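Dissemination and training. As part of the outreach component of the grant, students in the summer workshop were shown how a complex can be specified as a set of sequence lines and then modelled as a single object. The example used during the hands-on session is reproduced here so that future cohorts can follow it. Participants entered these lines:
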Amino acid sequence: MKVLTKNTDYAIRALLALSAKKGSYLSAKSIATEHDIPYQFLRRLLQEMIRHDLIVSKEGVQGGFMMEKDPDEITVTQLIEIFQGKVQVSECMFRKQICGNRARCVLRHEIMRIEQVVQSEFEKVTIGKLLRDLETANQVNQKEK
Amino acid sequence: MKVLTKNTDYAIRALLALSAKKGSYLSAKSIATEHDIPYQFLRRLLQEMIRHDLIVSKEGVQGGFMMEKDPDEITVTQLIEIFQGKVQVSECMFRKQICGNRARCVLRHEIMRIEQVVQSEFEKVTIGKLLRDLETANQVNQKEK
DNA sequence: CTAAACTGATACTATATTAGTATCAATTAA
DNA sequence: TTAATTGATACTAATATAGTATCAGTTTAG
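and obtained this result:
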């Protein structure tokens, strides 16, 4: 069971790269090269993120992509929803064979509770938080050298 | 993002059916019919569960499958692991491009923490618990009629 | 004013996973 | 002995994920 697909994984990495250089445009090519993400694949992800107003772009030479939203307001839950669809535990347990009355189906409640937990855990993880964690980790690495 | 695949979903339903008739053998056919699960598909799932010692079988006429383990000791986490592989959030964030030092990679910690949360939430949900919830729900439905 | 470095849009292929079907041999109870 | 069953396994279909290719339009540097 894989929770994050490459889509989401690459998108997170790209956002981290853009957040680290906030205010300036980074080309898809440079992000792809530096972070080892397939170029054309990444371009599609970036365009998707534009559609969701997470980033903006500038065409032409010296163009590229730039953060639009505050990294602290972008959660992993959002990214999962964009690239993997809404978190849902199961569509199939709600059949009448299992629980006669949908509205009262306790299984459903159980499942929806877990859905909530999963979602809210991923909501705690924002791009901003990841970026800060990353910087801290890098500092530790620097000192070691 | 779908957390439970049909595999797991069907397996849970089959286990609930078997738990409800604990001590007697239920044929794959009867379970398939009653719970609207594709017959051959179900058979494979049942065999997989035998291999994991969750259930036992008896061949021949009047044969079928029967619970082996205590339903309270079968967790949804276990079933996910059997049918969907171990819960893992992402294999890809651990590259050196993102976090120079694997051991200290904070992203990794973040991800592993979530992995733990997801797993332990599903561990709280046992077949036994689901069965009791289900019985309660059915009683409520009965009264309404 | 033109060439090169870019994004926008979109179509395409490849691979993996999930879902479902089919078949035949072996076993067992009536 | 035969019909109802599981054991084992091979196969197909559908869907999701991953990755590639192409061409048109925009912009800036020279």
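Residues 27-29, 43-44, 46-47, 50, 57-65 of chain A lie near DNA strand C (CB under 10 Å from a C1'). Students were then asked to discuss how this feature might be tested experimentally.
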